[in-house]
Amino acid sequence: MISIDGTLVSAGEGGVYGERMVGGHRVWDPYRSKLSALWYLDKSTDLSSDAVVLYLGAANGTTVSHVADYVESVYAVEFAPRPMQDLLMVARKRKNIVPIFADATQPQRYAPLLEAADIIYQDVAQPNQAGIAIKHLPFLKKGGVLILMLKTRSVDIRKSPEEVFADTCEELSRAGLRVQKSLWLSPYHADHAAIVCERL
Amino acid sequence: MYWYGSGTDISTDPAEVAARIRTAKTDMTKYVPCDWKQAQQLGLVKNRHDYIETLCRSTIHMSEEGIAACSQEKDVELLQMVRTLDEMDTVINLLTERLIDWYISITPAFSRKYRGSAAGAAKLLPMIGKNGTESMKKIAREILSMSNARTNLMKEVSRIAVSVIPNMSALVGGLVAARLVSRTGSLAAAAKMPGSSMQVIGAEGALFSHIRTGSPSPKHGIMFQHRRVHNAPREVRGHVARALAAKLVIAARLDYYRGELDAKFVDEANAKIDRLMEAEK
Fold first, then answer.
1. Predicted-complex ipTM score
2. Do the strands A25-27 and A21-22 form a parallel or antiparallel pair, or are they unpaired?
3. Which residues of chain B have pLDDT under 50?
């Protein structure tokens, strides 16, 4: 990852969503992007330049645009029509983003489009977030990394965030993933946790 | 099977790829991800860069098709209209409040008795339009003209709702029906919703505090705006809300899957709710 004076940035053409520029680089704001927040909390977070990324829950394509600045190519899946229009705008400019308009709970619908990924990054507001991640394991290379941004409030509002966090980690371990690290994204994002796993 | 096809059916034309993906049934237990080198061997792409570019042409085409299909759902425009209407209410109220405060600040003799009520605001606006400063008058005129636009929009919403969601409109009126669907997100979502959820749409705050802390559950949300619910005697209001919500989701399903008024259903539903109201009197 590239940082200038402790500020996370990415190299690439600016003006995607009105982001600030520093020394010709695009500032990657931890309050807007969970992946950036993860880097601020754990500096070993990295995206290698030859990686193929499967990005679930791409939304308007702000974080996607930064990821695309770092990696070889990004397959970006988004289901809602309005954000998808923004994502398409981003994909038309950045040639290494493959936008896919589909429901991440139904991977078999878009499986014929996907390559094996080095990294799966998931940020979806759904109740069964661990289940969605597990459904996508066939796309992840052996030794590949799953970065799950867990929105605990979307899982079960009756359970405490800590409980949801623990349950999710356990479910991922049972599915054959090794949880490398798991941490809360405070102070940048409330009730959000990052879980980084390796596929064995 | 991969996006570029298999056997004799091999191509990278976006329309053909889209048709292939639509009909594809992938068995995820046997699934092996695409390998771009295979596409290269088939002579479909020159190199890696070409592969991604060719694939993108297809996925962008499919996305555009998908988005177009979504916005063709007939409820999409209605929902935008309701949201605009509700937003206009907020803006009109805020501006009116602010303008009245402004007027009061330069009119020491002004009585505060008008404040706080909608009727008061309605009387005050023309008064400010007559007696205020030049800028106040201008703003008062703008607010009045926006109120007129709002009234027209409201009539239009009711009219369109009757044709887009006829059964729901027949039960609670076009405006409330449209607001319910707007809060649900889409008619498709409303048609899949259980009655108990429909009953408390718009009362999310109360609902979550009920789930978290066990405070009393809300009886009704947006549905309260309908006269059947807010005119019902207190003791049966919960009853009426529950029965009406159950009928509303059935109506949503009729509207979504059939799209036309089912007079028999509406009459029976209305009769049932009227019976509930009568029973307790």
1. 0.93
2. antiparallel
3. none
Beta bridge partners of A181: A196
pTM more than 0.80 = no
Q: Identify the closest residue of chain B to A76 by CA–CA distance.
A: B59
Residue tagged 């096809």 (tokens): B5
Length of chain B: 281
Residue written as token pair 């400010």 = B128
Are B34 and A91 an interchain contact pair (Cβ–Cβ within 8 Å)? no
State the Cα–Cα distance between residues B57 and B3, nearest whole angstrom.
Answer: 12
Which residues is A140 bridged to in the sheet? Answer: A117
Q: Is A150 helix (H, G, I), strand (E, B) or coil?
A: strand
pLDDT digits (tens, 9 = 90+) for A56-77: 999 999 999 999 999 999 999 9
For tokens 């159950």, the residue is: B246
**B20 - beta bridge partners?**
none
Chain A positions touching B31 (Cβ under 8 A) are: 108, 111, 138
How far apart CA A167 and CA B167 sit, in angstroms, is 43
Contact A95 B28 (CB under 8 A): no
Shortest distance, CA A42 to any CA of chain B (angstroms): 31
What does each C-alpha distance from A172 to A50, A51, B17, B63, B212 come to in angstroms?
Answer: 26, 22, 34, 31, 27
Q: Residues B94, B97, B103, B106: is their CA dihedral positive or negative?
A: negative
Give CA–CA dist A105/B161, Å, rounded. 32
Residue B36's SS3 state is: helix
